[in-house]
Write a structure and sequence with these properties.
Shape: globular
Order of helices and strands: HEEEHHEHEHHEHEHEHEEH
CATH superfamily: EAL domain
Oligomer: single chain
């Protein structure tokens, strides 16, 4: 994998985050893909454990961050943003915020156009350091989103301890949603939406794959979502070609 890193075989694919009322794209999540010379395009599940075990996951992430930020002038309008997935290992570095903000400055990108997406694991190793990093990023204008909300043991405690702006509802709660059908995920989704509204957080529903799920989420008052119903993750070249075709 070190050779793959040197050959720059890793690439960000972008999945849109949309407004559920009209499918307007408000931003994208950058998702890691490996262009394996023999096995084709691989999602992280096929290699992430090996990358972590060999100690190069952070280097792969930074290559991803650099490629993603460099793509922003072509990918985004001024009102849109891109989510970077920042793994827990990065929060062991007290200067994470300094490095991220320097990357943005070097590419003339506004902090408001980059959101970081984290999991509970990023907050558990050293909560005080994570609090400080996230707060400094917030002061610089960068938003932090908590991914897979509702699946961990301590999610609720994070809402008032950390300077979070967005929570993302895990796809496991979305699977059985449909209008008029009270599936097992509906009470959780309803509770997350009510809680987020009470503390002023945005909510993004992940893993929307059917029109029934879309309709149910809209009916519950969820405003933002992403999933295969709207688009699969795609490389920058495909997104730009699609935009150009739509404009012609």
């Amino acid at each position: 994998m070190r050779l793959a890193l040197a050959r720059r075989e890793f690439e960000p694919y972008f999945q849109p985050i949309v407004r559920l009322d009209d499918s307007t794209v408000v931003g994208y999540e950058a998702l890691l893909r490996w262009h394996h010379p023999l096995r084709g395009v691989l999602a992280p599940g096929a290699f992430l454990a090996v990358a972590e075990g060999s100690g190069i996951l952070e280097a792969i992430d930074w290559q991803m961050f650099e490629l993603t930020v460099a793509a922003i002038p072509q990918l985004l309008t001024k009102q849109q943003y891109v989510n970077l997935n920042v793994s827990p290992q990065h929060f062991r570095s007290a200067n994470l915020d300094t490095k991220l903000l320097a990357l943005l400055r070097n590419n003339a990108v506004e902090p408001s156009q980059v959101h970081i997406e984290i999991t509970e694991g990023a907050l558990m190793d050293d909560p005080e350091q994570a609090i400080a990093i996230i707060e400094r990023l917030r002061q610089a204008g960068m938003v932090t989103a908590l991914d897979d909300f509702g699946t961990g043991y301590s999610s609720l405690s994070y809402l008032h301890r950390f300077a979070l702006a967005t929570v993302k509802i895990d796809r496991s709660f979305i699977i059985d949603l449909a209008p008029g059908i009270h599936g097992s995920g509906e009470p959780v989704v309803r509770a997350i939406l009510a809680l987020a509204q009470s503390v002023g957080l945005d909510v993004v529903a992940e893993g929307i794959e059917t029109s029934d799920q879309h309709a149910a989420l809209s009916g519950l008052g969820c405003l933002l979502g992403q999933g295969y119903l709207f688009a699969r993750p795609q490389p920058l070249s495909v997104i730009l070609a699609t935009k150009k075709a739509a404009e012609s």
